[in-house]
Design a protein that fits this description.
The protein is α+β, with helices and mostly antiparallel strands. The chain folds into five domains: 58 residues, 434 Repressor (Amino-terminal Domain); 67 residues; 118 residues, Arc Repressor Mutant, subunit A; 108 residues, Beta-Lactamase (2-Layer Sandwich); 35 residues, no CATH class. The protein is built from 18 helices and eleven strands. The strands form three sheets. It has a six-stranded mixed sheet. Strands 1-3-2 form a three-stranded mixed sheet, with helices on one face. It is globular, with a radius of gyration of 24 Å. It starts with 10 loop residues before the first helix and ends in a 6-residue tail after the last strand. Belongs to the short-chain fatty acyl-CoA assimilation regulator (ScfR) family.
């Protein structure tokens, strides 16, 4: 069960789960074999949820312990904090403690408030820039929130991929050969190169008439592995993916389509890096990504992404967050298994080591960073861009960052040589300047929103504007 052994007070989440399932307190108490008064005390946060009841709840309702953790609350508090930083709310400041209380006591109301603000911000953008009106939440945002709700772990799909891997006849670690043989024996498909694929913007295509899988030539072997795993997931596990989406997926048509793509990619990653084997190798190597990728014959990015999904009940790995972005700071992927929450508005903090990685391509950058909620993370960042194939080719510049709490960081090889007790060199990072409350940051690009600015003549800070403390005018 959870790695963190502190007492778990999860009353609102327990009550929300019970109501979602249409159960009375008496019914749930009977399922858990406890008294009605005991359940009532847990729902009112008068008693913590013990490990054995947490295990029973997860098994009975097919959920992970993440459902009850405060990670979800931390992300929502961050979203509220950024929203309340809008000048729109300058006359009604809300302390962070009140935001946390609101998220804990009324999560559905906070969701509705955030959705309303997104709609307002979208309409404001339309009026200011005369762009086409967009939905309150874009499909990719819906899917991102949905994946985050599951803590980037889908048990049925993960187990299906693992069982499929174990059923293969893999000789001398040649997974690609085994996947190609399976596609030929079960589907009559053979692999063939097609030099025109890249010009058409395709990474693979099934030619059903000639029973071939067309792939670009000269691509990295780990990419071919991933594409073959994608195809197997599409051909053999689409029913399972559909069942997951119908049962608990997003409702918007475009969001469902994107979620289907995501789950197909999830299956592929789980097939290349089967859960139990990966967890064992990660422990043996102290999560050395280079050692893990050589063991499985995959890429640095594939290992990093997969490490952020290891949240199987009873077999949890380190809860990592994973982020992928381009050199302009555009977020391409973002998943978090811990309290770390990315800014929803504005770009990432320039002090983050993921930006330093672009200056040292292919080298790992390690950083201890502290967010504005005083949490300290061990982050590793590295570029994962491919090389250009020709002079005219302009490959996208991409970097990733994988991070965990400083406590979990001690379990990784990346803590070697770091004084984890000395926090004097910890880098303070923020959620983006608009919502960041750090006044002494010389990297600030604009004032914090929603606070009264002090531009008095008696002193001048590292930036020409300082915000008065919350509640002061």
């Amino acid at each position: 069960m959870p790695r963190n052994k502190t007492k778990l007070f999860a009353g609102p989440r327990l009550r929300q789960l019970r109501q979602r399932e249409g159960l009375t307190q008496a019914s749930l108490a009977e399922i858990l074999d406890i008294s009605l008064s005991y359940l009532n005390q847990m729902e009112r946060d008068h008693r913590p949820v013990p490990d054995h009841l947490l295990q029973a709840l997860c098994e009975h309702f097919a959920i992970t312990p993440a459902w009850f953790s405060d990670t979800r609350e931390a992300h929502k508090v961050q979203a509220l904090r950024e929203t309340m930083a809008d000048p729109l709310f300058k006359n009604s400041p809300l302390p962070i403690t009140k935001m946390a209380e609101a998220v804990r006591q009324s999560p559905d109301l906070c969701d509705a408030f955030l959705s309303l603000y997104r709609a307002y911000a979208s309409e404001r953008e339309r009026q200011e820039h005369e762009v086409a009106y967009s939905l309150p939440q874009e499909p990719y945002e819906t899917v991102g929130d949905w994946v985050q709700e599951h803590r980037n772990y889908f048990h049925e799909l993960d187990r299906a991929a693992e069982l499929f891997y174990e059923s293969l006849k893999i000789e001398d670690g040649a997974l690609g050969t085994a996947l190609a043989a399976h596609l030929h024996s079960q589907h009559g498909l053979t692999l063939a190169p097609d030099a025109n694929m890249e010009a058409r913007g395709l990474v693979w295509r099934i030619d059903r008439q000639k029973r071939r899988i067309l792939l670009p030539p000269n691509q990295p072997p780990e990419s071919t592995l991933f594409y073959l795993a994608q195809i197997i997931g599409q051909l053999e596990h689409s029913t399972l993916i559909t069942r997951i989406l119908r049962r608990e997926g997003p409702k918007d048509t475009n969001a469902v389509a994107l979620a289907r793509v995501y789950l197909g990619n999830y299956f592929a990653g789980a097939l290349l890096l089967p859960y139990t084997r990966l967890l064992q190798v990660a422990g043996q190597t102290r999560h050395d990504i280079d050692c893990i990728r050589r063991h499985f014959g995959v890429s640095f990015e594939q290992v990093s992404h997969r490490l952020s999904t290891l949240q199987r009940p009873g077999q949890e790995g380190i809860p990592f967050y994973f982020l992928k972005l381009d050199i302009a700071g555009n977020i391409l992927k973002s998943f978090s298994g811990n309290r770390f929450a990315l800014a929803r508005f504005g770009g990432p903090c320039p002090l983050w080591n993921v930006f330093r990685a672009f200056a040292t391509p292919g080298q790992i950058q390690v950083q201890l960073s502290q967010t504005t909620d005083d949490s300290i993370y061990l982050n590793i960042a590295r570029t994962v861009s491919r090389e250009g194939l020709t002079y005219a080719d302009k490959p996208r510049q991409i970097a990733i960052v994988l991070g965990c709490t400083i406590a979990n960081g001690r379990e990784t090889v990346y803590a070697a040589g770091l004084n984890m007790e000395d926090h004097s060199l910890v880098v303070p990072i923020g959620p983006g300047c608009r919502a960041c409350v750090r006044d002494n940051c010389s990297h600030r690009s604009l004032p914090v929103s929603g606070r009264v600015l002090d531009t008095g003549n008696d002193a001048r800070g590292v930036v020409p504007y300082r915000a008065l403390p919350e509640g002061k005018r």
